[in-house]
Amino acid sequence: MDRGNPGARLGALSARLRADLDPAALLVGNELDGRVAGTWGLPRTLAARILVRPADTQGVSATLRICNELSQPVVTHGGLTGVVDGAWAESGDLILSLERMTRIEEVDVVGRTMTAQAGAPLQRVQEEAARHDLMFPLDLGARGSATIGGNAATNAGGNRVIRYGMMRALVLGLEAVLADGTVVSSMNQMLKNNAGYDLKQLFIGTEGTLGVVTRLVLRLVEAPKSQATALVAMTDFHQVTRFLSYIDGALGGTLSAYEVLWQDFYHFMCARMPAVTPPLTGVHPYYVVVEALGSDQVRDTELFESVLSDAFENKLITDAVVAKSQAERDAIWSIRDDVVQLMELKPVFLFDVSLRIRDVEAYTQGVRQRLTEAWPDQQLLVFGHLGDGNIHLAISAGAESGEARTEVERIVYEPLGGLGGSVSAEHGIGLEKKPYLPWCRTDAEIELMKSMKRTLDPNGILNPGKIFDL
Ligand SMILES: Cc1cc2nc3c(=O)[nH]c(=O)nc-3n(C[C@H](O)[C@H](O)[C@H](O)COP(=O)(O)OP(=O)(O)OC[C@H]3O[C@@H](n4cnc5c(N)ncnc54)[C@H](O)[C@@H]3O)c2cc1C
What we know:
By secondary structure, this protein is of the alpha+beta class. 32% of the residues lie in helices and 21% in strands. Flavin-adenine dinucleotide binds at residues 40, 75-83, 86-87, 98, 118, 140-142, 146-147, 149-151, 153-154, 156-158, 207-208, 212-213, 339, 426-427, 463, 466.
């Protein structure tokens, strides 16, 4: 192939692919106009000029085999809701899109599993489980567009991790295609299987750098029959951590969400959402969205309300409002979840860090202080999955320049090393956090990651340049 001539290169590549794929699978040149490279982050117009969208695993395998032979870089696209530029593609890259692989193949109500193609949107998976009185517990704000394969590739977390774990805990089996086109099918449907290495974990959370996920066996649970949601106010962080232990124990295992909103975040969101009446008035330093999923609406609601009332009497909380309808529940969750409102801050830098719960308050205070020293008019909004030790920071400081971003990143990430924290709790590394991987992983860990990459993808064609440089 003529590497020096992009037109000839594209022509040779598309001719090879056309010979092996169904006609609807290949899009080239102008056929890609209007497509985006992501819904968040770097400039969004897609630079790549060739896209393959196979209908099945064989199509993915044929594509990768050809690309591997030609050393053609490949970037896999799911729903493009990733927030770390993991799906970013250069003009010479080939896009492998899972958009035609959306089939839900089977729901096994006895074994409580679902088998689906990797391009199925998360929301459709949730709805299909619900049709069988079951639940797929993963849930996040981007559920309508995010795909189940993208969720696996990023080891997505979301709002119910405290009870059900991250995506890693919700995948029983997985099929992936290696860089050379080899199909590795580990479509295990059992809860227990210790026969050798658990190969699916190679592809979960590795952001499309070791293989393309094509099908999955998902773990389902019985659909909850009751849901209780409250917004709770607190005066200090000690209350926030004590109330977490208290309510988790008192509810006997049904706590499914513990989302903390620092006051600046709560008031920012309420001010930007005129359709939502603030569920709690007054100013409180912390607000917590708590939710329990149980089996009996009357009994569980009584228990939920009595636990909150005891917490109030014992001065663990300052105020609380329990949602009395789905509309009230949606209103509470929208204040937590409607994070696109943050894009109104100009500039805005968003972070997803992880650290021990007991370190969170001192850490956020330290970040606030250092930001204020650098930019007295900075704005820091903190919120997130505190029950998982995972907080998000939205920071508006300085100009929309690379320089300001780098300085803000230093302020946010630098203290994490000493605390044993992580620069990425659930979003991954992608391109955005690549410089900071060594700030929370040892040289030996990174070298092992690189050697796995070299072994599984010796030509380095899969999502090159993401997570680390070889
Ligand atoms: C409003 C909003 C809220 C969000 N909330 C959360 C949250 O609470 N928790 C959370 O964890 N994330 C959250 N995210 C981030 C995002 O939704 C997740 O990372 C999601 O899992 C990405 O899925 P996707 O299909 O959109 O993947 P994409 O964005 O298309 O891709 C993400 C990465 O995975 C790779 N990839 C995609 N599909 C495959 C595949 N089949 N095989 C191999 N590699 C693949 C891509 O190459 C890329 O590196 C949120 C995003 C938004 C916009």
